[in-house]
Amino acid sequence: MANMNSAAERPATERPAAERSSPVERQGAQPREFDLSRDALRQLNLFLHKDAVRDGVGQVRVHNPDGAHSIACGLNAELDVQIHGHVGYYVAGMNQHASVTVHGNAGPGAAENMMSGRVHVKGFASTAAGASAHGGLLIIDGDASLRCGISLKGADIVVGGSVGSFSAFMAQAGRMVVCGDAEDALGDSLYEAVIYVRGKVRSLGADARYEPMTDADRAALKGLLTAAGRVEDPADFKRVASAKSLYHWHADADQEY
Question: Could you list the residue range(s) of the whole structural domain that residue 213 is in?
């Protein structure tokens, strides 16, 4: 009897990473085109989840998204998804392995809860971009609105422009790079995440503080900027991290921290 658990019988997304074919290896297949002015969003997402790997498609191009919500959510394969236009809520949410590029602006929650892979927004991003992201790299070429990186859990975020108030609020792990300015309460209630800011910071949040940049910081920052295609000098950035005074409740603090 044939072994139904052999690599040939298992879906590609259930195989070890070393056994999966990459988008580059699957370039023999023609890119698949979707036009959301005539194709249903459900049809696109179904193809991304099931048919693309089966058919050996490495790249999917999406035209006329017209602000549609939840495009390319929950991907779990090494696909290259190119979205030409503006998108709505939760683009590339819960992403694993895939590379998703938005040639336009993104609505709230872009790449929220991303686990791995790469999401690149070539325009601006609305509120809560990268919220609760565990891994991978989120790149935003323009500005990001309020609460960018809220509850960050290990991913890297590089913002080419400025970020809104309460960005990196309660960020637990990961790194955020802000090449522009930051509004109020940056890094409020930070845990172990680190923020690098090039421009002006209107105010830091509770328990966030400036710390000296080390050689390790500059090297890490250089790697992040390079990965995002940026040319800024790491020497121009400031480090923001947690003062760790909120880690424990103090009976004598009288609710003042």
Answer: 20-244
